[in-house]
Specification:
Two copies of one chain form a homodimer.
Chain A (H helix, E strand, L loop, with lengths): L2 H14 L8 H8 L3 H13 L3 E3 L5 E3 L1 H23 L9 H7 L5 H10 L24 E3 L8 E7 L4 H9 L7 E7 L6 E5 L2 E5 L1 H4 L2 E5 L1
Antiparallel strand pairs in A: 1-2, 3-8, 4-5, 4-8, 5-6, 6-7
Helix pairs in contact in A: 1-2, 1-4, 2-3, 4-5
The first copy, chain A, binds a DNA duplex through α3.
DNA sequence: ATTTAAATTTAGACAAATCTAAAAATATGT
DNA sequence: ACATATTTTTAGATTTGTCTAAATTTAAAT
């Protein structure tokens, strides 16, 4: 697979997430920032390689093989994003462009060991789930409080940092597994959040919010 | 610069190392594992971009600009090799192919931070010097004690850390500029080294060894 | 120095990935 | 349902990087 082919597979995968029906040529052209005619050409090549289903005028969708490939590229992208943030101190909003390049590096072993170095993370810095080696996505309904959309509600289901200092803090502030959490406001400046925990309003630092897993309801 | 163009610059740089005269089309074709006619085409493109000097039938050499670019690619290659060995536990003989890909990733910031993460190494896992950000190659004969090959001998010529604490330590242990140093053994576990300083055997921590410059003899 | 050999360049072609402009198929509105 | 609008595909051209085969230039040898 060339870089460009991998990017098309990724785009088809993302556009297909919502509905189960085929992706239109125009939609794909929009996503790829290219012209519909170019998309048609590329789709034909991809169909010949057996990674997409394609019938003229009927849109395109991934085959089993194409889906595996797309997930593998997405896995690489998100693992590299974690690396950039965790190991090289990039901000979560600076890493996308670099990861777009790194995701095309070809070495199974490299990715396995990167995964290990990072402690087998389940989510990338944007809160998106990282596909596993065998191609399954961890359920999206569990995510870090810091990654939840504004005004969403959920149930506290876990912690990322399980140090006793952190758990003690949660205890002191009456935050526990099973408690309801509502995200009221996000502070741009320091990424801290205003929440209600079981109707008790409180202000949590980014430190805290980025270590609490919440299941959306 | 495209990946291919960067690879040509690198190849020209390496073939030029020995003699000062221009690199022949055939030699370059050999290095790049391609045909001489392809090389001619590429050289013309590179000349138009002002990164090589080229006169028909007279061979090719790097301009100032081309040399800077080549060194930058080599720097990336060698830093990634250090990363693969130090952080991902690859063997030194497994990293070349992967580094060939990683060296083309475009981000100044990425390389600067990688350099920092690795502790500003001067040599790659094969012992080749890593060009600095400003494009100078550390001379092969001065290097950190911690980077010296086993059983090599040298003269202490400088320190990296020049804090008084460190200098006091050297004084107390009778290590000074001009003293002979022989590297007897390296401890895998903590990277400490066993050395003889002017025939006096001693055991130095990695802390120490990675702050002492030695000139090979 | 003249011929032969080797190195280098040109000419023409091809695959990948893109574009523009025009044609064909599908969808939409009343 | 029929005309019109939208979407999609085709046709032909371009760029990058490569190739083969032929022509040209430089080097070598007797």
């Amino acid at each position: 697979m060339t870089h460009s082919e991998e990017n098309y597979l990724k785009a088809i995968f993302h556009l297909n997430k919502g509905g189960a029906k085929a992706v239109s040529t125009n939609a794909l052209a929009g996503q790829m920032d290219t012209k519909p005619s170019s998309v048609t050409d590329m789709i034909r090549r991809l169909a010949e390689k057996g990674v997409v289903h394609y019938k003229k005028y009927q849109g395109v969708s991934l085959t089993e093989k194409g889906s595996r490939l797309a997930l593998s590229v997405i896995r690489k992208h998100r693992l590299w994003e974690v690396f950039l943030v965790e190991k090289l101190s990039f901000n979560w909003d600076e890493v996308h462009e670099i990861a777009e390049q790194l995701e095309h590096i070809k070495s199974e072993q490299l990715i396995d060991r990167l995964d290990e170095l990072l402690g087998f993370p389940q989510f990338d810095p944007h809160g998106d789930p990282i596909p596993t080696k065998d191609g399954s996505l961890p359920s999206g309904d569990k995510q870090l409080l810091s990654n939840m959309p504004l005004h969403s509600k959920g149930i506290c289901v876990g912690v990322k940092d399980s140090s006793s200092a952190f758990l003690k803090f949660l205890d002191k502030n009456n935050i526990a597994l099973g408690h309801r959490i509502e995200l009221l406001e996000k502070e741009e400046f320091d990424n801290s959040v205003f929440v209600k925990v079981n109707d008790a309003p409180m202000h949590l630092s980014y430190q805290i919010a980025s270590n609490l897993y919440v299941k959306k309801i």
